[in-house]
Amino acid sequence: MTTTEAPLRPEPYGGPEDAVHPPSRVRELLVGPADQPRWARPGLYALLALTAVLYFWGLSASGWANDFYAAAVQAGTQSWKALLFGSLDAGNAITVDKPPASLWVMGLSGRLLGFSSFSMLLPQALMGVGSVGLVYAAVRRWSGPAAGLLAGVALAMTPVAALMFKFNNPDALLVLLLVVAAYCTVRATESGSARWLALAGVAIGFGFLTKMMQAFLVLPALGLVFLVAAPIGFGRRILALLGACAAMIISGGWFVALVSLWPADSRPYIGGSTDNSLLELALGYNGLGRVLGGSGNMSGGGGGGGFGGGTGITRLFDDSMGTEISWLLPAALIGLVAGLWFTRRTPRTGRTRAALILWGGWLLVTGVVFSYMQGIIHPYYTVALAPAIAAVVGICVVELWRGRQFRLPRIALGAMSASTGIWAFVLLDRTPDWFPAMRWIVLIGSIIVAAILIVGAHQLGKFTAAVAIAGLLFGLAGTTAYAIDTATTPHTGPVPSSGPNTGNGMGAPGGMDMSAPDANAADGGMPSSENNDNSELQELLKNTDTRWAAATVTSMSASGLELSTGASIMAIGGFTGSDNSPTLEQFKTYVADGEISYFYGGGRGGGPGGDSGSGAEITAWVEANFTAKTVGGTTVYDLSQPVGN
After folding, report:
1. What is the pLDDT of residues 272-300, one digit of tens each?
2. Which of 9, 76, 337, 640 shows the greatest Cβ crowding within 10 Å of its Cβ?
3. Secondary structure element (H or E) that encloses residue 636, with its range
C-alpha cells in the first residue's frame, strides 16, 4: 500500500516559460491544475451534475415533508423573532426541540423566494451537492482524484443521504457542517495551520446549533489526526487545538448565551427542555438523555421500525438501519483495518494514515455511539455516517489497488468486493419482490471480481480497466438502486425511511404504528391531525387577527393547520404535549388579554414525558369556562365568549 507524503498541489507557476505565458485560468477551471489527470476536473463536474439531478429531481413532491419543521420555517418567514429562536408559531409560544440553525437557512430561503415546498427544500438539496463536493475535495488532497471521485459517488448514492438531502430535518445541514470541519482539518493538518483548525472548530460550533451534541461525535477524529500528523512541534499542536476549541465554544455558545440573557417572558419557551433553558435541552433531552436514556427519551433503544431497534454491535445492520447506511460498511471496515496495518510504519505525518485516522475515527466513534445509545434514535440519523464510510471506501480501494502487485493488498481488495456483494444480497433480499434478479447479479458478479482480484489483479494487462469498472459497478449497484428509488419517491411524516416500500415516511416497510404508546416520541414531528382537512375550521382560523388564531394541545394538531392557513397556532406542551408551556396561569392571562381567538381539541399530550405537560389542565379549564361549538366536525371553543355571556 502506498502513501503520498509530498504536498498534492505544487506552486501553480514555476518555470520561466510559465512566467511569460501563464496557463489560461479558464483552461485550469475546465481541466484542472497541471498536476491532476485531465479526467479529474471533468469527472468532478459530472459527479456534481449527477448529484444535483438526483437531489433536485421532483424536489417538491414531498410537499411539506415534516410538518413540524415546515411550520417552524413558515413562522420564520412571518416573524424575525420566530426565525431567530426557531419558534413553531409566529406568535412565539414555543420553539421546536432542536436549535434553529437549519431553520435559519430554510427560513431565509423562504423570505427570499417566497415560502413554498421548493424554497424550503432548495437549501437541503444544495447542502447535499456541497457535501459531495467537499468530500471529494478533502479526499483528493491526500489520496488523489480517483479516491475523491469514488468517495463522492459513494456518498451521493447512499440511500439515507438521498433521503435527507431532500427533506427538511436538521440532518442535512449537520452533515454539511461536519464535512466542512473535516475539510478544514485536512487543510490544517497539511501545514499545521491554526487558522484552518479554528475554522473547523467554527463549523462544529454551528453544528451544535443544528443538532446539538451529535456534532461533537467527530471531535475525537478531528483532534487526533491533527495531533498525530500535523508537521509542527507538539506544543504548537496543543495550542492550535486549544484555539480550535475556543472557536467552537464561541461559535456555538453565543446563541446559548443569547437565549439565557434574553428575558424569558419576551421569547418563546425552549421546546423539549424542562426549565426553559437551551443548555438544559442540550445536556438533557438532546444530550445525555439520547445516549443513556431518560430525560424524555425511551430507555433501551426500543421501538423497532421508526426507531433504531435494540442496542448492540449489529444495530447498524439490522432491519431498521441496514438499508439506510450499511451497504458499503463491511467494505469500509475491512479497508480501514487493512489500511491501518499497511501504513503502521509510515512517518508520523504520512498522508494516507492521517486520512484513515480522520475518516476512520469519525466512522468508529459515531458508529459505536449509534449502536449503543439508549435514548431515542431513528434510522435516518445514520446519514451522519455516510461521509465517513464513503471516504474510507474511496481511500482504501484506490490505495489497495495501487499496491495490487503484492498479495495482501489483493486479498484485502477481494475481501472488500466479496463482502459488499454478499451483504448487498442480504439487504436486497429484505425486499424480495423488488427487482428480485438484482441480488443474484450483484452477488455473483462481486464474487467473480473478488476472485480475479485476489488471483491476478497484478497481471490483468489490457483487462485492468474492465475489471476495475466491473468491481465498482457491482459494488455500488445495490446502494445506487436504493438511492435512486428513494430520491424519486415522496416522503412525508416524522420518521422518513429510504428504499422501496417506505415512502409513507413512517419508518420500516409497512409503516410505524403511531397508536403505540411510544409513538409520540417521534423525533421532530408527529403525524398529521384529521383537522388538517377541515375546510370550515381553516376558514375560521384565517379570519382572525389575534396573536394566536387558536390554541391546541401538541404540534400534531397545530402544525398542519398552520401550514394550510398561514395562521399562528399555539401548540400547548410542544410536539408531544409534555412541555409545561404555557402554564395554566399564563394561558389564562393570554385569554384575558384577548391574544387567543379559539381553542380546539384533537391533540393528545403526554408523550414520553407522561402527563407532565399543561395540556390536560388547560383543556379542562377551557371546557369548564367556554361554550363548545362544532366546526366541520371539530369541537371549537370561542375564547372571547365565556359561559353565561
Report:
1. 888 999 988 888 776 676 776 665 665 54
2. 76
3. strand 634-642
DSSP SS3 for 334: helix
State the cell numbers at 160.
439515507
389575534: which residue's cell? Answer: 546
Q: Is the dihedral of CA 267, 270, 276, 282 positive or negative?
A: negative
In 175-266 the beta strands, taken as DSSP E runs, fall at none
How far apart are the C-alpha atoms of 369 and 311, rounded to whole Å? 10
How far apart CA 321 and CA 323 sit, in angstroms, is 6
- 115 to each of 63, 254, 312, 555, how far by Cα in Å? 12, 28, 42, 20
In the beta sheet, which residues pair with residue 570? 551
Query: How many residues would you count in the chain?
Result: 645
The pLDDT of residue 612 is 58
Backbone angles phi, psi at 236, to 5 degrees: -65, -35
CA distance 133 to 149: 9
Omega cis (within 30) before 220: no
* CA distance linking residue 247 with residue 245, whole number of Å: 5
Residue with cell 510559465: 18
Strands (E), 447-590: 548-553, 569-572
**Contact partners, residue 61, CB within 8 Å, separation at least 6:** 490
Question: CA-CA distance, 285 to 581, in Å (whole number)?
Answer: 16
Lowest mean pLDDT among 21-35, 212-226, 297-311: 297-311
